[in-house]
Amino acid sequence: MPGERTEKPTPKRRDEARKKGQVAKSADINGSLVMLASLFALGSFGPKIVQTLEASMINGLSQISHPDVVSQQGIGEVLISSFSGVVAAVAPLAGVCMVAGVLANVAQVRPKINKEALKPDIKKLNPKNGIKRLFGPSGAFEAGKGLLKVLVLGVIAFITIRPKITEIAASVGMSPSDFLSAAGSMILAVSRRLAVAYLVIAIGDYFFQRHRNEKSLKMSKEDIKEEGKSQQLPPEVRGAIRRRQIQAARARMMSAVPQADVVVTNPTHFAVALAYDGNKGAPEVLAKGPDLVALQIRRIAQEHGVPIVEDPPLARALHAGVEVGQEIPEEFFQAVAQLLAYVYRIAGRRAG
Question: Between 59 and 209, whose confidence is greater?
């Protein structure tokens, strides 16, 4: 079928997607590698961590047990001393986990700062879009994947713990130190198996994310032809074609202003022309623009008797959130409906 995306993406297409932050990445890879790194760190630094925490606790209790020392140093210094010991004990574990998390991200997406992702986007703050993502097909898939992971890891944990139930029962009567040692060994063994299983699941999820990203980047034959034509032209010619396309689009936009029902202004910085014929679900943006373009929209509207209404907040919001030729989103319905009702009432017209 014409326009069907069946071709592999070109390097240019991949580079543009990467600049926008559209890359294959699995959050489970990060979680599994951090979990494995933390278990490795506990196995290597565990005794040292316990010794450091024990010494810090003993030192803190010994200082508190002498009121004269607390009165001389102050409770703040005692707390700082104890907190420093805890930080010194946990620092190696936290450092290993941090390095593992950074390496996991770099291995998946390569080191690159995505400037596009850092730009503020008002659309990302829209709760309606968040609810759609949460309860849409993608959200349902992620929820099912999460339940499957919990089920698999739960089965593995049960299979690992079940043979050791007799050992747990035999631990009754053990000394606290022996019990803690046995329990720690058991927990470490279960955690290692879970971490390996989690890593296997994460690798599978990463390849699935790659497949889905590759599918979203596919191109049609027409797209590849157009890209080839644009690459064969010199930069000056491409720039001239781009300018002509912008001029033609602006001319088409200006020719639609006389058909507008109202022009909303800032009053001087922005102008948005709206029309509603009753056959569509919502009013449509016919033209919009800042500064000189806004001035031209107002001039054409005045020449053809199109009402011009000053509403700075609505004009700024429509200019930033709605493209030309699109119907306005639901969050603007009430404000635009009141505006159109006012215009129809003043002009003596009725909406279709």
Answer: 209
Instruction: Return the DSSP state at 329.
Output: P
**Other beta carbons less than 10 A from residue 93's beta carbon:** 18
The sign of the torsion formed by the CA atoms of 298, 302, 304, 305 equals positive
> In this structure, are residues 300 and 257 in contact, taking their beta carbons and an 8 Å threshold?
yes
**Res 128: pLDDT:** 64
Q: Tell me: the pLDDT tens digits for 125-159?
A: 566 665 666 666 666 777 777 888 888 888 888 88
Q: What is the pLDDT of residues 154-206, one digit of tens each?
A: 888 888 777 777 766 666 666 666 666 777 777 777 888 888 888 888 888 88
Query: CB neighbours of 297 closer than 8 A, spacing ≥ 6?
Result: 254, 257, 263, 271, 273, 287, 288, 289
pLDDT category, 6, cuts 50, 70, 90?
confident
Helix residue ranges per DSSP H, 233-307:
235-255, 291-303
Q: Which domains does the chain have, with CATH numbers?
A: 11-217 (no CATH), 253-347 (3.40.1690.10)
Rounded to whole angstroms, the Cα distance separating 1 from 3 reads 6
Q: What is the pTM of this model?
A: 0.50
Tell the burial category of 294 from Cβ atoms under 10 Å away from its Cβ (0-12, 13-18, 19+).
buried
- Is residue 271 classed as helix, strand or coil in its secondary structure? strand
Nearest to 149 by CA among 101, 105, 106, 204: 204
* Rounded Cα–Cα distance for residues 329 and 108 (Å): 36
Classify residue 287 as exposed, middle or buried by CB count within 10 Å of its CB (0-12, 13-18, 19+).
buried
Structure tokens at 116: 């596009």
Other beta carbons within 10 angstroms of residue 195's beta carbon come to 21
